[in-house]
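Input record, target 12 of the design panel.
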């Protein structure tokens, strides 16, 4: 646990804090060996283990921890939602079976058929039938038998109200996940639709529009991220530095003019690096351009060509650089 922001790992303090907390009481009650009551009430009495439900707060705590640690939180949220729905349908199926037992198996078309019938006597058939009936109610995708008794009507009313809440929860959670994915894409990649609208409004040539579309397609296919600063700006400076060192230092250390530099200087330089992505066939710069940047090739190959665009003088690969004259002011 944290004490004034300091992580405490001392077992004595951990034990003392845990024994004095409410969580200890919840855990103790949930772990009581109530299974021995089966000897008194029989194996057909699952309520003797109902104290296990006191572990639900621990389950929620573990779920929150997993969501903060996993690299795929949206996938985890969808998985949790599906598990919750499955458990709810399972509990409802058990309640429907208990309701049928109370009214009498096979007394009317709504309850579970008579278990003396060999077709509906097996435990597996009983569970599958009740689970199917429960799923029909909660998903509202099929016709369920019409209730006959008042108890059945009340049961169905409560079930349909819960089904509405479940449906709203599913739609809301899925909508949040989709919105989160869109926000992630908007941060990771530039907004293509806005650029398209701008090009159309200014009647930019089809050829140039196609080049821009190819560049966007290249970004998405190769998962290139252009807005590193916006993604990492919430992190403290020292953590941003460590991330930049981890991502860019191997590339920077390949550059010959930086190989003899101290590590502290390289760590300062990596914070100044800005990723630039060029799609195949694009020119990085041309003869006569005013240079303001130094380029370091991280991956891919770059050809130095003549004015005709065909004759190749050299091919540069990862670790090569050019444009250093423009920033180092070398005559």
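The sequence produced for target 12 reads:
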């Amino acid at each position: 646990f944290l004490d004034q922001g300091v992580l405490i790992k001392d077992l004595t303090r951990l034990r003392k804090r845990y024994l004095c907390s409410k969580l200890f009481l919840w855990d103790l009650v949930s772990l009581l060996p109530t299974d021995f009551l089966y000897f008194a009430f029989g194996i057909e009495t699952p309520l003797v283990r109902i104290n296990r439900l006191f572990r639900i707060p621990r389950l929620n705590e573990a779920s929150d921890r997993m969501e903060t640690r996993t690299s795929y939180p949206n996938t985890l949220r969808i998985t949790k939602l599906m598990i919750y729905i499955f458990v709810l349908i399972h509990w409802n199926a058990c309640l429907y079976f208990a309701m049928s037992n109370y009214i009498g198996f096979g007394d009317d078309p709504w309850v579970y058929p008579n278990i003396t019938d060999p077709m509906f006597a097996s435990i597996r058939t009983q569970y599958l039938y009740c689970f199917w009936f429960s799923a029909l109610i909660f998903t509202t995708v099929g016709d369920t038998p019409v209730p006959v008794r008042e108890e059945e009507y009340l049961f169905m009313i409560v079930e349909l109200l819960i089904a509405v809440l479940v449906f709203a929860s599913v739609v809301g959670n899925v909508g949040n996940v989709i919105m989160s994915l869109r926000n992630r894409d908007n941060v990771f990649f530039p907004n293509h639709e806005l650029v398209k609208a701008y090009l159309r409004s200014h009647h930019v040539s089809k050829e140039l529009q196609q080049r821009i579309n190819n560049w966007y397609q290249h970004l998405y296919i190769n998962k290139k991220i252009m807005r590193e600063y916006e993604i990492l700006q919430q992190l403290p400076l020292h953590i941003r530095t460590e991330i930049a060192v981890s991502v860019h230092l191997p590339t920077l250390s390949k550059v010959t003019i930086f190989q003899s530099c101290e590590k502290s200087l390289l760590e300062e330089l990596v914070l100044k690096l800005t990723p630039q992505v060029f799609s195949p066939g694009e020119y990085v710069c041309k003869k006569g351009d005013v240079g303001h940047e130094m380029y370091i090739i991280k991956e891919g190959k770059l050809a130095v060509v003549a004015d005709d665009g065909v004759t190749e003088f050299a091919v540069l690969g990862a670790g090569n650089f050019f444009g250093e004259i423009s920033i180092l002011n070398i005559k």
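The first strand starts at residue 2 and ends at 3.
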